Amino acid sequence: GLNSVRIRVNDTDFCKARKISLTCSREPTSQLNMVRTPMSNSEQRISTETALQLLTKQERRQILRHVAEASDGTTVDKLTQHLRGLDSLQPDGNGPTRSWDSDLHHLHLPKLQEANVLEYDTNRGTVHRSREFQTVFSLLEVIDDHRKDTWLANS
Questions:
Q1: CA dist 19 to 16, 23, 27, 141, 145, Å?
Q2: How many Cα atoms occupy the beta-carbon half-sphere of 121 within 13 Å?
Q3: Contacts of 71 (CB under 8 A, 6+ apart)
Q4: CA 94 to CA 45: how far, in whole Å?
Q5: What digits encode the pLDDT tens for the residues 77-125?
Q6: Rounded to two decimals, what is the model's pTM?
């Protein structure tokens, strides 16, 4: 089933501004709580802390955005090309020189696979959404929307 995100914030305008389905509470708290549809007891759910840790790295956020746009999954080669293309969009036109293949293969994809966000087939070099993808991606969308709203409010 679909997963939803519950955010408890003091700012009721934040709750009203959301375009996606959110349940907001006016209770004073800074804690994010993930709300899930019932799963079997044998399936472990991703914690809010784990989801937020996964989203701390810009590279993983870009990976998730790219996979979200590819309904049938993608390949490591396409992800590498996408991330290199983002590097070339840096303001000075001289994006950082990185070894995306190594970073993807040894760091980012295994971490996302371990959390059941992505399925990474090392033999085929393919990447697909996994059980927790929508939960983590929904949280990323909320964060992105909040950043946009904050930027617009401050400009």
A1: 8, 12, 21, 10, 9
A2: 10
A3: none
A4: 41
A5: 999 988 888 766 555 545 454 567 788 989 999 999 999 999 999 999 9
A6: 0.65
